[in-house]
Amino acid sequence: MRPVFDPTDLQRGHAYRMVYDTDGDFRRFEYHVDDDQFLQVASGGTPSVFNAALVDYQKRREQVAMHGEIDSENNSLFAAMVAGGGDVQVAVDMAQVFSGEIDFNTELRQGDHFSVLYEQFVRDEVHVTSGDVLAATFVNDGRQVTGFRFEVPGEAPAYFDTTGRSMKRQFLSSPFRFEPRVTSRFSYRRLHPVLGTNRAHLGVDYGAPTGTPVIAVSKGRVVSAARSGGSGNMVRLRHTNGYETYYLHLSRFAKGMRRGAAVAQGQVVGYVGSTGLATGPHLDYRLRKNGTFVNPLTERKNLPPGDPVPDAHMAAFEQVRDRAMAQLTGRPAPQDEDLLSANN
């Protein structure tokens, strides 16, 4: 059995079952490996012969629409998502969809509300895992933002607003895949927590546990990844349009962080730490434009969006948009084509 599955990988608490025929003879043993596969060891017809295989679970893909609201008890996107019966991963993905429009750490207000249409995978009528966010709308302080997943032929799937304008910005709203906690803002005069003197703080501090992955807010190249005095372990990236980003106090660097290396938007560049002059684990994130440090929380909104849906594919996009919006609002949706293949 070892070429198929190592018995030492058996995990406490994983479900299994033994199957016998009507005569009480052993037929097969099944063991739950993970959400995608189970181990099956079946009788080979003789007492000493068994056949082992990893078998894929049969899962059904569904589309689910859910709604949530930010209130005093559920004051974050994550909390509101879970309270509404959704999945934390859906909240993570939804935050990424709107990362160019809403800062979910600093801009949420009580009374904000959202609807999201996403895929989920079901096995034996039980939710196994969530898939892609297909569409979402968020009303933030009275302003409604809506995004739809659409794949332009030959390109990776992306998100666009109701007019086909790209939801993507050159920079993500933060260097984390979740809603980070801002512990100190950009300021030209701040009491330094270690030195005890007033000095400029030309970045934004995010509180997070040691080892939390830190991601590149935009694609670029590594200028340096090294120890840098009071900044501790620091990664510096160069981007287009005169921008550079800095990630300070890291506990360690991600693999491949060497001078000149290309970095993709959303790629892990390091891990939260407290190296250098730091009172505890956090990330000091800085943004420089044409040689001058600027406030990352406000600068991102000045950046232009990505490419819109090409004119040649607008009709297909509009069909996807209209079907998704119908599902979000509970109206009957068209039945002529599948939502995900309408652009083929």
Along the chain, the helix and strand elements come as EEEEEHHEEEEEEEEEEEEEEEEHH
Strand content: 35-45%
In the CATH hierarchy, the third-tier topology of the largest domain is known as: Nuclear Transport Factor 2, Chain: A
The residue-averaged pLDDT reads: 85
The amount of helix comes to 10-25%
Strand element count:
21
Low-confidence parts, pLDDT < 50 over ≥5 residues? 333-344
Question: What is the number of helices?
Answer: 4
* Main pleated sheet: 10 strands, antiparallel
Description of the molecule:
With 344 residues, this protein is mostly beta strands. It has 3 domains: 7-56, Nuclear Transport Factor 2, Chain: A; 60-164 and 309-341, Nuclear Transport Factor 2, Chain: A; 181-298, Glucose Permease (Domain IIA). It has helices at residues 77-83, 88-97, 296-299, 314-329, and strands spanning 16-20, 26-32, 37-43, 50-56, 60-69, 113-123, 126-140, 143-150, 158-160, 181-184, 187-191, 198-201, 204-207, 213-215, 220-227, 233-238, 243-253, 262-263, 268-272, 282-289, 292-294. The strands form 4 sheets. Strands 10, 13, 14, 15, 16, 17, 18, 19, 20 and 21 form a 10-stranded antiparallel β-sheet that branches. Strands 5-6-7-8-9 form a 5-stranded antiparallel β-sheet. A 4-stranded antiparallel β-sheet has the order 1-2-3-4, with no helix packed on it. Strand 20 (282-289) and strand 21 (292-294) form a beta hairpin. Helix 1 crosses helix 2. The protein is globular and about 80 Å long. The two termini are 44 Å apart. The relative contact order is 0.11.
